Amino acid sequence: MSDEHATDHDADSTDERTAGTGPLAPEEITADSPYTLPGFFSALADGELLAARCTDCGTLLVPPRTACYDCGSRAVTIEEQPRTGEVASYTAVHRPPSAFADLAPVTVAVVELDSGARLTGRVTAPIEAVSIGDAVELRVRDPDDVGIDPSAHLSYEAEWPVHEFDLTE
Amino acid sequence: MTDAHVVAVGTSPLGRTELPGRDLFSRALAEAFDGLPDPAEVVDALYVGAQSERYENQIMQGTLLAEWAGLQNVPAERVEACAAAGALALKNAVRDVRAGVHDAVLACGVEKMTAGGTEGATNALASAFDRALEQRSGVTAPSQYALLARRYLHETDVTETDLARIAVKNHGNAADNPRAMFQKAVDLETVLDSDYVAPPLKLFDCAPITDGAAAVLVASEDVAADLASDAVRVAGVGTAASSLSVAERDLTYVEGAEVAATTAYDDAGVDAADVDVAEVHDAFTICEAMLAEAVGFAPRWRGVETARDPADRSEGWTDVQINTSGGLKARGHPIGATGLTQAVEAYEQLTDRAGDRQVPGAETALLINEGGLADAHTAAHVLTAH
User: Fold this and answer.
1) Alpha helices, DSSP H, located in B156-202
2) Which backbone phi and psi does B5 adopt, to 5 degrees?
3) C-alpha count within 13 angstroms, C-beta hemisphere, residue B379
4) Predicted ipTM of the assembly
5) Please, what is the average pLDDT of chain A?
6) Quick check: A49 and A138 in contact, CB under 8 A?
7) Which of A72, A87, B49, B194 has the maximal Cβ count within 10 Å?
8) H or E stretch covering B322
9) Cβ of B196 and A61 within 8 Å?
10) Closest residue of B to A111, CA-based?
C-alpha cells in the first residue's frame, strides 16, 4: 500500500477515541477515524484488523461503525482483532462477478475469529480442502496482486487492501 | 381506517422475452385492467418495485410506468429492497389506501433481467450484498445462500436430497400454472445431477433469471364495489430489515422474517395455523425451508418437510400449502416483480381461480417476499377471501 495510506492511520489518535461512553461527535467521524471505512482499511493496510466493540452489550462489529446493531447503543470503542479463527461456513463461487472471473472458482467462508467477531472472506484453498471448524489465518493483500479486475474498484477503493484467509492446519 | 383490497391483477409472460421492461409492464397492465375503466379513471398513485437500473440503464421507473399507464401528474415512485421491492410497492399501496390518502393505488413491479446476460444479472444481484468486505470477496447471490445452506446441513441431518425435493415440489406445482416460466415437472435425479453453482446449492436449487412484470390494483372497499370485480382483503402487513452482511447474521434462522410475519399476523388477527396457502420466497431451496420455520408453519429444523404432503409432515407442522404457483423456482423470479407475482397467486387462490392447482376452500394466504440475503429485508402480507 502507499505511504500516504500508511500514515493516514494514527494509532495514538485512535486510542484517544476509545472511551466508549457515548455517541461520537460529528467531527470525530472522519476518514482518519477507524469508525469509517477509509480508517478501517488504512489500519488493515498496516496489518491491524479493527472491530468496534459495544461497551454496553459487548458485541463486536466488523467493519467498525458508530452504533451497535445488536443493542442499538452508540457507546462503542475500537478493538484490534486476532487474525486467527475458524470456518463457520463455506462455499465456492463457480460463476463469480466479472471482476473475479480470473479467480473462479472462488472459495468463500464466513470466519469466526478467536474473539468471536465474524467476517466473510476468500479462502486460499480449493473447496475440497475446507471444512467447518478448520483453523484459518487472515492475510492482507494488495488487490492488484490478487487478480481482481482493477477496473471494478470504485475511485475511493483503489488503495484499499483486500483480505483473505489461509488454512493453517 | 379503511380496509385495502386487491381488486385486479395481471402479469406479463415470465421468462426470457423480447420485450423491454416498459412493454412487460404494458402486458401486465392490460391483463389487470381487462374489463375495467382506463387506469386514469381509477388510479390515484403508483409504486413500482424495480431492483436495478443496471439491466436497462433506466431509473425514474415511477414516472415511466405512470406515463405508460396514461396517468398524468400522479404520485409515482420506485421502491427498492432487491427482491423484496415488489412487496414494498404493495405495502405502500395498502398503506395509502388504509390511511385514506388515496382510494386506488397501482402496485407494480418490473425487471428485465436478461438484458445483460447471466454475467449482467450476476453483477447486478451482487450489489445487494455488503460492498466493503463481502462484494470485495467475490460473493454472489447463490454463494451467500450457500453459506446458509452449508451451515444448516452441518447442524442438522438434512441432506442435499431434502433440499432437492423442494425444487421437485415447486416444479410440479408450476406444471399447473399457466403463468409459470417452467410449466413442467422435474424428477429428483434431474435436480441432484445439476451442476453446482455454489456448493451445496446446485442449478436446480436456484430460481432462474427471469424477465417479467406484474401489476396489482389496490383499492378501498368503495372503489372495489364500483368496479364490481372480485376482491380479496389485505388484512395484514409487516416488514422488517435485518443486517446486510452474511457474516453478522444467524446462519440458520431468519429472525427478520419471523418479525415481519408476526407483525402481519397480528395486524390481520390471525396466526400461522390459520394460513391455508402461502407464497414463500424460495429464491433458493434452503430459503423455503428456513422461512417455513420462521413464519410458524414448521418446527425448528423441520422446514424441508415443506416438500411433503401436509398429512406426511412432522407433528407441529401446519397444513399450509406452500408455493402452489411453483414459487420463484419454477414460476420465475423477475426480481422487482416477484412480490407481486406472489400476490397474483394468492388472489387467484382466494377467488377460486387457480384451476388445477386450486386449494379447496382457501381463505387465508400469507405472502413472504425477501430482499438481499435472506431476511436482509422481509415483507409479509396476509390476504383473506371475502
Assistant:
1) 160-174, 188-193
2) -130, 145
3) 25
4) 0.95
5) 90
6) yes
7) B49
8) strand B321-322
9) no
10) B247
